[in-house]
Amino acid sequence: MRLFNNRIRKYIGRSQVAEYDERNLQETIQRSKEAFFKNEEKQLLSGTEFIFQQGKYIHKRWWVLQGGVLLLLWGILQVTEQSFYIQRSMGIAASLFATLILPEMWKNKNSNAIEVECITYFSLHQIYAARIFLFALVDLLLLSVFSFFTILTGKLLLEDMLIQFLLPYVVACSICFRCLYSRLGGNEIFAVFLCVVWTAIWTQIVLSEKIYACISPLVWVSMLVVAVLYLGNCICKGQKNCKEIWEEK
Fold first, then answer.
1. Model pLDDT for residues 111-155, shown as the tens digit of each residue
2. Nearest to 176 by CA among 238, 112, 222, 229
3. Which of 27, 42, 84, 120 has its CA 20 to 30 A from that of 222?
4. C-beta separation of 84 from 212 below 8 A
């Protein structure tokens, strides 16, 4: 054993550390990085592939429930013989239709996955932009089909559809996204509460003939335009600052 140890010491003593040029080493490291990045670029997802991938993470039951809300509302309109009270109460269904996006939008926030997503290749705002785009696309399709059949069957005029459903829907969406990107730490329960308050206020306005008659069609359209612009501002501003807002929280 002692003889074996002596041989090891002699071998170590004879071995010399290989000398290298620092400049050549750095050049090798740089070329290795370039080769790695070049190979990774070939495997990057395109915009369409990225959106499709994000679609897999969305629970489709929320879209089914949204479709169910519209189907139920359409059925009620079919059997109520154009009751203006039912038509003016569509804002309740519109707010419910909007709040069904909350579970998916808040999913990553509630599961504390924001920290992980902040260090991924695709940025946090890209991930949320893809999901917002998917919800907007599906909601547009659902609302287009609902509007087409409702107007086609003569149960609603286009003007009534815009005022009685689309306006409260856009306002409810604005509330949801404003709470989602709030620096005050608003949660989805608080967002639902605000949507309920908004629905109650809206219902009181449209069911009061005195108030409803005082508002001209031009005012309703102006309100809809302002609501759409505000919703766009909430989403754009929130997307721009979402990483900083959630890092502060």
1. 555 555 554 555 666 777 778 888 888 888 998 888 888 888 777
2. 238
3. 84
4. no
- Residue in the structure block whose two tokens are 């759409």: 228
Over the stretch 150-163, which tens digit does the pLDDT of each residue have?
Answer: 888 777 778 888 88
Question: Which ranges of 100-187 does DSSP label H, i.e. alpha helix?
Answer: 102-110, 114-117, 124-152, 158-161, 167-180
Whole-number Cα distances in Å, 99 to 4, 145, 154, 227? 77, 20, 28, 16
Task: Tell me how crowded residue 174 is: count the other CB atoms within 10 A of its CB.
Answer: 21
pLDDT of res. 246? 47
Nearest by Cα to 97 from 64, 56, 54, 129: 64
Q: Round to whole Å and give the CA distance between 192 and 101.
A: 11
Check pLDDT > 60 for residue 15.
no
Asked if residues 181 and 245 have their Cβ atoms less than 8 Å apart, the reply is: yes
Q: What is the reported pLDDT for 248?
A: 46
